[in-house]
Model the fold of this input.
Amino acid sequence: MTGKDQGVKCVLVDPPDRVSDMAKSHGATNATKMHEVYPPLGLAYIAATLLENSIDVSLIEARTRSLSHDEVIKKIEKEAPQFVGITAITARINSALYLAEKVKKISPDIKVILGGPHIHFEHKTVINNDSVDFCVRGEGEITSLDLINCLTKGGDLTAIKGITFKRDNDIIVNPDRPFVKSLDTFAFPARNLLHNPAYRGLWTEGQTFSPVLSTRGCPYHCAFCAAPRIWGRKHRRRSVENVLDELEQIYKEFGVRYIRFLDDLLIVNKKWTIDLCRGMAERGLDDLAWACDGRVSLVSEELLEEMKKANCIVIFYGIEFGNQRILDLCNKGFTIDQVRETVKITSKTGISSYGYFMMGYPTETVETVEDTINLAKDLALNHGLDSAGFSIVTPFPGTPLYEYCEMNDMLVTSDWSQYSYQLERGVIELENITYAELNDLYERAINEFQFKEALYQFA
Done:
């Protein structure tokens, strides 16, 4: 008997974001203090897996559609599901828990399942909330399917790897689920369930784009990043043919002409990347423009030329800091000279480069932050950097940075909603920089990069 035969219904929700209004702006400046909004691709992957196994699914994008909690609840009531799955990053966990509480008021029999990056590390705390029935850790596709099937058919919950739940007053933490070895086994994300399968972006100058995830895992050890602990340190790749099939589907079925690869690091394997680039041309996807994240010191002119031929138009580089001591402290693994060379050869190839920069790392001084501002301007004026984004350092649970800050009593708030790159005030108490100084430096970075040519002309 299938899920649909039993009338099993699951609603997946990307919860409201209190600061989502900040992301509505699509201004034309080349220096930004906010990040673009992307559809909940993780939920679309889970939805596809559930649908493939005959479980009825709907997906609510509250954040990207600016829906309120009450509007979400009305939609859930209309769907009358047995299961509600809610995803949560750290900054939205309060919103997710508030939504879970309101779901339980619809009916206490609805099973509320939480997953996402924050849950992966804070599951023992989150499960103590009376409105949460289960926490899903790690990759959620198979775990969510097994959990729903188990609850539907009356199976043994202790046999479901990757979940945390309560039994009486005890918290049960089942063993972790091993990473899926072959990513080709996953169905393509259920984009047809998204309210709008393509989103508009700054880098596409307002044209619609669709996100794609072709790899999982990262072999690097940046202290502020939790990706290796969530996805693993081994870089798992889908086959080139599988990725090309998805690109072709997006191109033909949804009419999308811009793709944003969301991989932490698409280009780790040079041969795989070149095969992907050449495959796009062979599939007739020459006018499919795309962007991805790169890594300083990892690209070469040969690779960039192949990417350019395949219509790559933007590479986003996590440069982060302009001071070598701070770069070494956070384990970036490259030098300032390598930053300059990478941006230079990217510009030479004709691909636009976008630099991510941060400020406010532990032990930073006003001078080290100024080094970051000056490097951003130097890269733009002398090496071809086209755009830049600035943010305040935020220590997220699960990262070595968070553990360091917690151990050294540097965290100034336990309010998770403050743990966001979009907020101008950091959550780390710095020894050498006051909040006012850091905010001034942050605003200065935005303004000076935006008006860099005029500033240098009259300096």
Notes: The chain has 15 helices and 17 strands. The first strand starts at residue 9 and ends at 14. Residues 246 and 284 are 14 Å apart (CA to CA).
